[in-house]
Amino acid sequence: MKTDMPVRRILLFLLTVLPPVWLCGPVCGAEPKKEKTDRQTLVFLNWSEYLAPDLVKAFERDFHAKVKEVFFETNEMRDGKLALTNGRGYDLVLISGLAVEPYAGRRWICPLNIAQIPNIRHIASRWRSAFPGAQQYAVPYTWGTLGIAWRRDLFAGNVSRWKHLFAPAESLRGKVMMIRDSNDSIGMALKSLGYSVNSTDTGQLGEAERLLLAQKPFVREYSYIMLDRSSGLITGDYHMAMVYNGDAVALQHLHPQIAFTVPEEGTNIWVDYLAVMESSDKKDLAHAFVNFLCKPENAARSASFLHYATPNTAAEKFLPPEHLSNPFIYPCPDILSRSEFYTKLPPRIKKERNEIFSRILKQEKAQ
Q1: How far apart are CA 93 and CA 113, in angstroms?
Q2: Which pairing describes strands 92-96 and 258-261: parallel, antiparallel, or unpaired?
Q3: For residue range 289-327, what is the model confidence (pLDDT) as tens digits?
Q4: How far apart are CA 76 and CA 66, in angstroms?
Q5: Separation CA 314–CA 124 (nearest Å)
Q6: Residue 195, C-beta contacts closer than 8 angstroms, at least 6 positions apart
Q7: Which helix (H) or strand (E) holds 49?
Q8: How far apart (Å, rounded) are the C-alpha atoms in residues 269 and 249?
Q9: pLDDT at residue 362, rounded to an integer
Q10: Which alpha helices (DSSP H) does the chain contain, by range?
Q11: Which residues contact residue 17 at a Cβ distance below 8 angstroms, ignoring those fewer than 6 apart?
Q12: Which of the 8 DSSP states describes residue 32?
């Protein structure tokens, strides 16, 4: 550039080549506006394999969040985890219907902000009000039943009643799996004897204990069924097992010889609920996730993934006919009419049942 260039031409040149100072902002030394990259993490205490991975990814993308699942293997283990921290450290929890009222009483879960869950309108009132406190504190996620699964190629006998599990054929000695839960094992023993699963009669409970003790030589294990190819029903370690209906359907996809029935005496109808933790500092995100799962299309995807019935009536139009017509997922009205929800029991009876089950498990260790 020549030094004798007119000043106005120099200015014109500078204005043409360089951006005006008032337009360059961040480029010229001001702090650039940062993109929001921090993601909130939602900690969800849940059963293993109880949440469709594609739904998790969709929520994380749409809400710029991260879902971290912490798993429990039994209801008792979930209770223990929460007791250790007095309900702290989690934002959302999956609980059984019977746990809603006690959890609310301990202030582990908070009342729902219904305004933040508009999709709750799709949930049938039967499931919302099935357990005390549920309408105020929890949102139904799935519902199902208990039944008997068996290998048709390993046991060809008839299986239609609870007695076929609790008083098994001799060929089933050491080949039965029972759910490691006092409500389920004692409750279905009571059902087998013709009593209510919620019986508070000590004489009837005594009969149930004797039935379970007589069954002991046939029980290989008190546990929960695995849902992969290592499952005892697939390997043949179990010939018969007490299982939840959706688990049986999942296993049928892995082995064609697995059969399932909901016994004709009726069974337990259970409901699993989503609840927001009182101590969470991400309650808005937790409510958003619950609302996301209640969106009919998403509820249908959950039901298909889990092989369970959905309490979301609007989701049914997104489910295939073979899901809705499957009697293992949706038992017939007659079976359901003879089935029961578990109810809250008096402390004395609860203690007695726990002692009965402890004696059963003690016998297991002694064998």
Answers
A1: 16
A2: unpaired
A3: 999 999 999 999 999 999 999 999 999 999 999 999 999
A4: 27
A5: 9
A6: 201, 204, 207, 208
A7: none
A8: 17
A9: 85
A10: 7-17, 21-24, 53-63, 75-85, 97-105, 125-128, 134-137, 163-166, 182-192, 202-215, 232-235, 245-252, 283-294, 296-306, 321-324, 333-337, 347-366
A11: none
A12: P
- Calpha distance 218→196 (Å, rounded): 24
| Inter-axis angle of helices 283-294 and 53-63, nearest 10 | 130
Start-to-end CA span in the chain (Å): 100
CA–CA gap between residue 343 and residue 204 (Å, rounded): 17
Tokens of 345: 């029991």
The 10s digit of each residue's pLDDT in 116-158 is 999 999 999 999 999 999 999 999 999 999 999 999 999 999 9
Q: Among candidates 67, 55, 68, 50, which has minimal Cα distance to 295?
A: 55
- Locate 108 and state its tokens: 């582990």
Name the nearest CA neighbour of 150 among 171, 124, 130.
171
State the pTM of this model: 0.85
Average the pLDDT over 167-189 and give the result.
96
Residue 341 to residue 132: CA distance in whole angstroms:
12
* Phi, psi dihedral angles at 322 (to 5 degrees): -70, -25
Residue 274 phi/psi, 5° resolution? Answer: -100, 130
Residue 167 has, within 13 A of its CA and on its CB side, a CA count of: 10
Residues 6 or more apart whose CB falls under 8 angstroms from that of 156 comprise: none
| Residue 94 contacts residue 47 (beta carbons within 8 Å) | yes
